[in-house]
Amino acid sequence: MNASKNKPDKVVIFDTTLRDGEQSPGASMNLEEKLGIAELLEEMGVDVIEAGFPIASVGDFEAVNEVAKLAKGPIVCGLARSARGDIDRAAEALKPAQQSRIHTFISTSPLHMKFKLRMEPEEVYQAVIDSVSYARQFTDNVEWSPEDGSRTEHDFLCRTVEAAIKAGALTINIPDTVGYAVPEEFGSLIAMLKNRVPNIDKAIISTHCHNDLGLAVANSLSGVSAGARQIECTINGLGERAGNAALEEIVMALRTRSDMLPFTTGIETTHISRASRMVASVTGFAVQPNKAIVGANAFAHESGIHQDGMLKNAQTYEIMTPESVGLTQSKLVMGKHSGRHAFRVKLEELGYELGENAIQDAFLRFKSLADKKKDVYDEDIVALVDDEVQSKKDSIQFASLRVICGSEDPQTATLALTIDGALHQVTAKGDGPVDATFNAITEIIQHNARLRLYQVHAVTEGTDAQAEVSVRLEENGKSVVGRGADTDTLVASARAYLNALNKLIEKREKTLPGALSA
Questions:
Q1: Cβ count near 5 (within 10 Å)
Q2: What is the pLDDT of residues 262-277, one digit of tens each?
Q3: Between the CA of residue 44 and those of 266, 292, 332, 344, what are the distances in Å?
Q4: Three-state SS for 113?
Q5: Sign of the C-alpha dihedral, residues 52, 56, 58, 61?
Q6: What is the pTM of this model?
Q7: What one-character-per-residue DSSP string does 367-387 give?
Q8: Beta-carbon neighbour count of residue 427 at 10 Å?
Q9: By the 8 A CB rule, do 14 and 232 touch?
Q10: Strands 478-486 and 467-475, bridge-based pairing
Q11: From the CA atom positions of the chain, what is the Rg in Å?
Q12: Per-residue model confidence as pLDDT tens digits over 45-62
């Protein structure tokens, strides 16, 4: 069915955070994290979840398969090159899905065909027909993409698009794979396809824009204005190089400027902030403060003129409300005198659904935090609960840390860890307190992982703010991100390092050859 015929103003939101987003270096996610994100994407009302590239690895196959079992509303999509092996693998992974889609692609630009594929245009043309026809044997819902579409010769692009639709593709995705296009150019490309491809009315045109020139969102919206009715995007704009079009920016642009962009989506925007926090936490990629929609400063006003205007009428300097993206002013001020019931209500307000044991454990850490901090903000509770939930699953757990540091040597860390219920303690030296702490961990848990990222940011303002630390470890080509939070930066650092180590120990994926990007 061609959805654009029935609802000409509806834009399908195709989220590829779990596939294209995860291809961002260092952004790998484990299965449990992927399922958590998929569950939230479904809550948000995302139409299509591209869950992975099943041929790429055992882990990718498993993720697509498990998301296919989990999702009830969205279409679950798996990526495949034009090779039959890719398509077979995608079809197998998608078997449990209530609604499935195979997304197959091949490069069509002269540059890619000559140097990447080493194929003649006619060979590529036949591969388009063969791959779409073969994918249709497994599902009626096939999407086809001409990789590097924005740099493909128009005549050849029209031929391949027409052939793909004739072979059974219901969605034609036009990727700006290297983020080269500008909005007027990309919009004209979509308009050209609508005018020149005779059977274009039998398919939905999609956009997939990368952000190398900072134009991914603008190009996507230009494509929609020209007739595209699906946008491929990611939470926080996560993705290779400079990333993809950001889902939150696209959705809120369509909502806020409906006068100029008279289109709708099915996204429940109040989940946007929670989704942004989750993806940032899982990947360790902190959102920059001035990031549109979800940055810490997106609704902050420091200028006296701006503050004066805001006090008189919020619309003077806010074109959307914080509540519309899931940011709410605290109805409950939390502190050391707050009780368990108030804490439970606050968790519900923040979108958490925890069992009794998890609530009790989180409440005890909250009381400990409230004794150290005068003001406990929503962001503090989010960091605390996320840290508590993830650490409870770890076999190696933080017990205690004592550090001697300063301008005079030696800097030492005395660390105690609980491993499968047994307490282990060691004292280690280092070049500074963080190095000493990490050396102590390595003395207890022997490993060859290399530290690729160490990042600290304050959850809220003030010298008593919780520190949130992200650590990326790499071993034998496998990369994991760990996270920890505490009012003590060194404790947060130890928690983050241990969280990463736990993930590394559990990681059992075996990478298969030939994983490519679309």
A1: 11
A2: 999 999 999 999 899 8
A3: 8, 19, 25, 23
A4: helix
A5: positive
A6: 0.80
A7: HHHHHH-S-B-HHHHHHHHHH
A8: 14
A9: yes
A10: antiparallel
A11: 25
A12: 999 999 999 999 998 999
